[in-house]
């Protein structure tokens, strides 16, 4: 296999990891805020705090890992995306910064403030929205080359229906992923009230997720027919993803096997995400940059892959320990120390 | 707009602002885990709950500073590509390896920090809990190690050849082992430990200054002053090596800091002073032979002056003040912490004086100022290069619009984060005074 393909696959895997665990986090923040509004806070607060507290910093590292790896394996992407994305990504950074630090401030220091809880909840939805712009830009049509320099076409980006369908998909899938995970988590904790409420949320957001995904495929056809055809060539992956979607929803409806329902959701998103990624091949930014002309030299690529394997050998046991102590430790989840 | 839009200037300002803010929290993030480990270890060994409580309280405060360190670090990591896309495209080919390894170090640290913070009461055996802190301290030190390597590379790039604008013969390991690396890494690490120790000592000194006489604060002050003294001595020694490194590999940076305009032997060191209209040094303190000693360890050695560097490649002369402030603070902190240690051993009364405690309180803020001055010196002293000898700052910057707006956006962010973190830290410890906490622990153990 090409080093290029290995590189992009590893990075794509990390991005996927980030999307899943960050979605859980972002959605949890939103449900917290929403429960404040609907006076159901006592039901949800405990379960959400239990899960989030020990892992929030790890979530952030997944993102850092992705963009640092991107610059390492594909230095030219730093040039193209760096030049073009100054404004949207800066806004994303500010939101991440406020949300991340305030989580720590509130949990370990200050008292709960209502305003903070709302800001926290809303920021959790705005972050995926602002970061999803990166994917939109990669589709082509929003970047021009002027005097040899890439320039973002703000107006076209803002008024494109594709942009907004991707934004909507990012938001609804955050809520869907998060609610499904937390349902399973509450089930392990034997917290009936929280489980029932979260299950309702999960079901409520499942339909919009499927709808938004379908909408994007339609938009693609209008926006960029070549990219649309690439996606259609891989229809079976997306169909399989749909099967897992049905399984998750069915399990939720049957009020059974919540953990299996969550894993089925992970498979559903993994299939869709990798299907999308494969359809994007070989472009990093359509049509200017492919993984081949953006790739680093062989010496660096080899060094990065060796470092990656060594680092991973170190991380896997540690992540396993973290999960054992907090995620899958029934005593902890239920409220023990 | 009221200013002429120049993305280079705004990119420089924004990078400098983010780094100057990040480094406050980053330095604490590198140093404090070691201090917590030392306190907890002594507490376990002496079976003294004061030290255990020290470790606990520091760890709680540490969470707040880590949070700001992490989010501002994420900001600088992305800003490197957003503001310096040309530089990152070139640098990515050669120096991406340590940047990549840094994320692993952070990852490692973040995982164990999460575990450590949530398992204070989970282990029967406190030693097991302390073990969890070791990966945190190692991860923090290694992240500083790797990121400093990147910065060292910017000063003395190597490990590649530039042939007709194309990069060839790339060797990532040689790039990491560049000549600036050893002194830079050692200096950054020793100053991080030193600064963290003094910051913690400052807190204790402040309590004593305010009239609180609890033995808890005395123990904290004594321990941290001792650690601070050890790392100050290390810092001065490594700082001296840094000077020798500069003399050999980056002479124009040293010459600019010393206002050493002509190459000469038996060079004196000039402290402070100012330049008059003709560019003559006025009012400075001149220490004969000292620059020759700093640069080559020999009072008669020849030291290269600024005249050897083409005019348009000379760093700005104001770095002189950054350097002098850093060195003055380093000398002062070594002296005052050594003096305090000695005075405690001798039982001198001065250590109980309020005014003396106030002087000790100043050491934390001073160390932090020295960190900032050191970085300003190192960064402005590299100008006009972003990659010394290969790429000018003006060629590395982005061509994008709205960098000025982003500068204001981030300035606002740092004001909010800085203020909030200070408020939260103060509240956290005011709400929960040491005496109260000691009493609570005694109560839990049924001693009441
Ligand atoms: C508590 C902070 C602190 C203190 C007391 C000192 N330094 Fe320092 N110094 C730093 C904090 C620092 C730093 C922030 O860590 C820098 C900035 C970049 C770097 O590599 O380290 C630095 C850079 C730096 C450099 C430039 C290295 C380069 O650009 O490659 C030199 C020559 C010295 N220092 C020398 C000294 C000497 C002779 C000191 C004697 C007292 C001293 N420093 C005290
Ligand atoms: C963390 C402590 C640091 C501080 C306080 C700091 C400070 C600064 C300042 C003040 C500038 C502006 C210089 C000017 O405009 O003349 C600057 C520029 C810069 N620094 Fe640093 N720096 C730090 C570490 C680093 C590290 C570790 C790296 C690289 C990995 C780095 C990369 C840069 C870059 C790319 C620029 C912009 C180019 C330039 O102006 O030279 N800095 N920094
Ligand atoms: C241009 C230079 C720098 C870059 C690109 C950078 C990058 C980062 C990133 C991405 C993070 C967040 C990691 C996470 O999400 O866990 C971070 C946090 C941190 N950085 Fe920086 N950093 C720079 C300068 C420095 C320097 C010079 C030091 C140390 C001397 C340093 C030490 C730290 C520490 C200790 C933290 C996290 C706080 C903690 O977890 O303990 N950084 N940095």
Automatic annotation (TrEMBL), chain A:
It is found in: Cell membrane. The chain crosses the membrane at residues 6-34, 55-74, 80-105, 117-138, 158-182, 202-222, 234-254, 261-279, 299-327. It comes from the Bacteria. Keywords: Cell membrane, Membrane, Transmembrane, Transmembrane helix. Its main location: membrane. Coiled coil: none annotated. Belongs to the cytochrome ubiquinol oxidase subunit 2 family. GO terms for cellular component: plasma membrane. It comes from Halalkalibacillus sediminis. Signal peptide: none annotated. It holds the Pfam family Cyt_bd_oxida_II. It is a multi-pass membrane protein. This is Cytochrome D ubiquinol oxidase subunit II.
From TrEMBL, chain B:
Coiled coil: none annotated. It is a multi-pass membrane protein. It is found in: Cell membrane. Pfam families: Cyt_bd_oxida_I. One of its GO terms (molecular function) is metal ion binding. InterPro entries: Cyt-d_ubiquinol_oxidase_su_1 (IPR002585). Its main location: membrane. It comes from the Bacteria. The chain crosses the membrane at residues 20-42, 62-84, 90-118, 130-154, 185-209, 221-239, 321-344, 356-378, 405-425. Keywords: Cell membrane, Electron transport, Heme, Iron, Membrane, Metal-binding, Transmembrane, Transmembrane helix, Transport. GO terms for biological process: aerobic electron transport chain. GO terms for cellular component: cytochrome complex; plasma membrane. PANTHER family: CYTOCHROME BD MENAQUINOL OXIDASE SUBUNIT I-RELATED, CYTOCHROME D UBIQUINOL OXIDASE. Belongs to the cytochrome ubiquinol oxidase subunit 1 family. This is Cytochrome ubiquinol oxidase subunit I.
């Amino acid at each position: 296999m090409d080093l290029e393909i290995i590189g992009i696959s590893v990075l794509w895997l990390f991005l996927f990891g980030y999307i899943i665990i960050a979605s859980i986090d972002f959605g949890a923040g939103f449900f917290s805020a929403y429960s404040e509004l609907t006076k159901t806070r006592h039901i949800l607060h405990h379960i959400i705090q239990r899960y989030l507290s020990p892992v929030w910093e790890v979530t952030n590292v997944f993102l850092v890992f992705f963009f640092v790896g991107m610059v390492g394996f594909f230095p030219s992407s730093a040039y193209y995306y760096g030049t073009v994305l100054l404004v949207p990504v800066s806004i994303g950074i500010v939101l991440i910064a406020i949300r991340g630090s305030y989580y720590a401030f509130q949990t370990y220091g200050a008292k709960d403030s209502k305003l903070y809880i709302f800001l926290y909840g809303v920021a959790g939805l705005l972050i995926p929205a602002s970061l999803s712009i990166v994917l939109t830009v990669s589709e082509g049509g929003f970047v021009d080359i002027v005097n040899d320099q890439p320039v973002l076409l703000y107006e076209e980006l803002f008024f494109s229906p594709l942009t907004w369908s991707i934004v909507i998909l990012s938001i609804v899938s955050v809520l869907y992923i998060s609610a499904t995970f937390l349902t399973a988590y509450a089930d392990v904790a034997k917290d009936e009230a929280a489980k029932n409420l979260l299950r309702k949320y999960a079901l409520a957001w499942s339909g919009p997720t499927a709808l938004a995904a379908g909408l994007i495929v339609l938009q693609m056809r209008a926006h960029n027919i070549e990219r649309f055809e690439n996606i259609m060539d891989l229809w079976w992956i997306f169909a399989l993803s749909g099967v897992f979607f049905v399984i998750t929803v069915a399990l939720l409806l049957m009020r059974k096997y919540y953990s299996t329902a969550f894993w089925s959701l992970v498979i559903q998103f993994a299939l869709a995400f990798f299907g999308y990624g494969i359809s994007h091949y070989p472009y990093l930014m359509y049509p200017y940059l492919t993984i081949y002309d953006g790739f680093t030299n062989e010496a660096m690529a080899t060094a990065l892959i060796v470092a990656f394997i060594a680092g991973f050998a170190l991380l896997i046991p540690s992540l396993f320990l973290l999960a054992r102590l907090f995620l899958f430790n029934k005593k902890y989840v239920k409220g023990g120390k | 707009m009221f200013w002429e839009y120049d993305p280079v200037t705004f990119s420089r300002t924004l990078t400098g602002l983010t780094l100057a803010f990040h480094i406050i929290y980053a330095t604490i993030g590198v140093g404090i885990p070691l201090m917590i480990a030392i306190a907890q270890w002594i507490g376990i060994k002496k079976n003294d709950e004061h030290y255990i409580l020290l470790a606990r309280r520091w760890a709680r405060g540490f969470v707040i500073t880590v949070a700001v360190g992490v989010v501002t670090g994420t900001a600088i990591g992305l800003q490197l590509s957003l503001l310096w896309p040309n530089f990152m495209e070139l640098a990515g080919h050669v120096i991406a390896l340590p940047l990549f390894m840094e994320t692993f170090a952070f990852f490692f640290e973040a995982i164990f920090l999460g575990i450590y913070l949530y398992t204070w009461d989970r282990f029967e055996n406190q030693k097991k809990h302390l073990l969890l802190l070791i990966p945190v301290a190692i991860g923090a030190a290694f992240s500083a190690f790797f990121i400093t390597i990147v910065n060292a590379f910017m000063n003395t790039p190597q490990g590649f050849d530039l042939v007709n604008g194309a990069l060839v013969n790339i060797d990532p390991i040689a790039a990491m082992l560049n000549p600036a690396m050893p002194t830079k890494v050692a200096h950054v690490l020793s100053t991080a430990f030193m600064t963290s120790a003094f910051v913690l000592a400052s807190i204790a000194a402040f309590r004593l200054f305010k009239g609180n006489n609890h033995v808890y604060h005395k123990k904290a002050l004594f321990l941290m002053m001792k650690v601070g003294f050890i790392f100050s001595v290390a810092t001065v020694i490594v700082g001296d090596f840094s000077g020798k490194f500069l003399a050999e590999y980056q002479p124009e940076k040293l010459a600019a800091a010393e206002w050493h305009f002509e190459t000469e032997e038996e060079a004196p060191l000039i402290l402070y002073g100012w330049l008059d209209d003709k560019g003559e040094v006025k009012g400075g303190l001149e220490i004969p032979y000292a620059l020759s000693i700093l640069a080559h360890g020999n009072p008669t050695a020849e030291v290269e002056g600024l005249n050897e560097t083409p005019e348009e490649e000379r760093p700005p002369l104001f770095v002189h003040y950054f350097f002098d402030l850093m060195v003055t603070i380093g000398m002062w902190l070594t002296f005052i912490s050594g003096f305090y240690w000695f005075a405690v051993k001798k039982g001198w009364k001065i250590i109980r004086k309020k005014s003396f405690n106030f002087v000790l309180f100043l050491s934390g803020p001073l160390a932090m100022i020295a960190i900032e001055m050191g970085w300003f010196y190192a960064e402005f002293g590299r100008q006009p290069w972003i990659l010394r000898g290969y790429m000018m700052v003006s060629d590395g910057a982005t061509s994008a619009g709205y960098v000025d707006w982003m500068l204001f956006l981030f300035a606002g962010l740092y004001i909010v984060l800085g203020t909030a973190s200070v408020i939260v830290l103060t509240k956290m410890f005011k709400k929960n005074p040491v005496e109260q906490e000691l009493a609570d622990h005694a109560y839990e153990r049924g001693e009441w």
